[in-house]
Amino acid sequence: MIEVRNLYHAYRGENYVLKGINFSMGKEIVALVGPNGSGKTTLAKHFNGLLKPTKGSVKIDGLDTREHTVAELSRLVGYVFQNPEHMFFEESVFKEVAFGPKNLEKSEDEIRKRVSWALKSVGLEGYEERAPYSLSGGEKQRLAIACVLSMKPKYLILDEPTTGLDAKAEKRVVETIRSLKDNGHGILLITHDMNLVLELAERVVLLYKGEKVYDGPVEPFFDIALERYSLETPELLKLAKKLGVSFVRSTDELIASISGGVL
Ligand SMILES: Nc1ncnc2c1ncn2[C@@H]1O[C@H](COP(=O)(O)OP(=O)(O)OP(=O)(O)O)[C@@H](O)[C@H]1O
Ligand SMILES: [Mg+2]
Asked: Is the CB of 45 under 6 A from ligand 1?
């Protein structure tokens, strides 16, 4: 479990940007949403110890993040950064993805298996010998995800993972997230994309000005007046409402509910 108790955070003596957050999550897909500057990244950076609480506590499977290093916590919590361009330092994609499992002292065979699985999951098979800096923006984003996947952390934080990805790549990332969840991982998905929330999330946490203003299931989340939080209701849900259907997750579900599955 990730357990956050009464968490306050202030950067270098400035005002609090997180104000009394209580939150816990296990093996589930949680979407963390909220307007720019609401504190999503600040909250998530507490989960692998990159930031430490100014007040309150964060525990990962019982480990207090104040008492453990980022290296120790990274075995449990993988973090894919919002802007991954600057995180690569190896000369090839293979080495970059192998770095994590190597540090975990996995066998050569296991490392190769993990690299090939991770690259396949993000659609970068065949890129093994390329230099990371030579990849396109979207490819770098996918490489960053692969680097974290190869460590198979119990919890995975994805900060805007689909920004800049084309439709095919986004689909792969969505499928990977689903399969990770089915394999017992907990996923925290930070996103502004409400379609992604609708498609993938099991629970939504909404931050606003450093406070948690909603934490619960997806359906009632979309009853909130989201414009107030600079978020937009998906077109699919607007259409469903006009057709008298209160909630659906996909176009197929909408068709089924208005035609009784005949179409
Ligand atoms: N290193 C820092 N030093 C000082 N203030 C910071 C720092 N990082 C973030 N902040 C401030 O903390 C607040 C929360 O920022 P944070 O990055 O957590 O927001 P966010 O919800 O992730 O936003 P976005 O949707 O734009 O990614 C903002 O007011 C931001 O300016
Ligand atoms: Mg952010």
From this structure: no
- Axis crossing angle, helix 108-121 with helix 137-149, rounded to the nearest 10: 140
Ligand 2 centroid – CA 252 distance (Å): 32
Single-letter amino acid, residue 208: Y
Per-residue model confidence as pLDDT tens digits over 117-139: 999 988 899 999 999 999 988 88
pLDDT in tens, 9-56: 999 878 999 999 999 999 999 999 999 999 999 999 999 999 999 999
pLDDT single digits (tens) 65-110: 999 999 889 889 999 887 777 788 999 999 999 999 998 889 999 9
Name the pTM for this structure: 0.92
Among all ligands shown, which has an atom nearest to the Cα of 50? 1
Residue 65: is it exposed, middle or buried by C-beta count within 10 angstroms (0-12/13-18/19+)?
Answer: buried
Ligand 1 midpoint to CA 123 (Å): 31
Indicate which residue's Cα is closest to atom 6 of ligand 1: 11
- Please return the burial class of 124, using the count of CB atoms within 10 Å of its CB with bins 0-12, 13-18 and 19+: buried
Token representation of residue 60 = 């990962």
Pocket test for ligand 1, best of 7, 11, 21 (most atoms within 8 A of CB): 11
